[in-house]
Amino acid sequence: MLNYIIVFFISMVPLIELRGAIPFAYGFKAADPSFNLLLAYIIIAVGNMLPVPVIFFFARKVLEWGKDKKYTAKFFTFCLEKGHKGGEKLQKKAGRGLFVALMLFVGIPLPGTGAWTGTLAASLLDMKFKDSVIAVMLGVALAGVIVGLLCTLGFGAWFGITT
């Protein structure tokens, strides 16, 4: 049970998210054959999606508020710039296909392209909430398939998990 809780919390950590939680799940599976990977995937996906509504509705406001505060200015400005740059790139490349671009942005498992950054970018681009959530959810599913495939092929060790 503890291993499922661990992967749940890992999947909620910004920049690590599902991409880091799945290799841990494969590591837990290697150590304990009774560990259920399908259940872990579901738990990881829920954990990765849980912060999305909060990010969409509140992150932008909090970041704007904190960007000029003494202790938070650097980090909050970094987050705003990262989200804004990601949103601009999506907007330029996508044009009218912003939904698909957001899904692919979240779904391609590269550093800084997960649900957190994608949702912040969608918020900064004033996308509709429903469209944003669906695009991010599909992107999370795509990233889960890609990372799972890489772990199955033995690349989990690249993520710090030896199988």
Write structural notes for this entry:
The protein is mainly alpha-helical and 163 residues long. It folds into 2 domains: 2-49 and 146-159, no CATH class; 52-139, no CATH class. The chain contains 8 helices and no strands. The protein has helices at 2-11, 17-31, 37-49, 52-66, 73-94, 98-107, 115-124, 129-152. The chain is globular. The two termini are 20 Å apart. Residues 159-163 have low confidence and may be disordered.
State the gist of this model.
This protein has 163 residues and is an all-alpha fold. 73% of the residues lie in helices and 0% in strands.
List the helices and strands and how they pair.
Blueprint: H1 2-11, H2 17-31, H3 37-49, H4 52-66, H5 73-94, H6 98-107, H7 115-124, H8 129-152
Helix pairs in contact: 1-2, 1-3, 2-3, 2-8, 3-8, 4-5, 4-7, 5-6, 5-7, 6-7, 6-8, 7-8
Helix content: over 70%
Major beta-sheet overview: none
The helix-strand sequence is HHHHHHHH
Structural class: mainly alpha
Using DSSP, what is the number of strands? Answer: 0
Q: What gross morphology would you assign?
A: globular
Domain module tally: 2
Distance from first to last alpha carbon: 20 Å
Poorly predicted sequence stretches spanning 5 or more consecutive residues = 159-163
Strand content: under 5%
Rg (C-alpha, Å): 16 Å
What's the overall average pLDDT, rounded?
A: 88
Q: How many DSSP helices?
A: 8
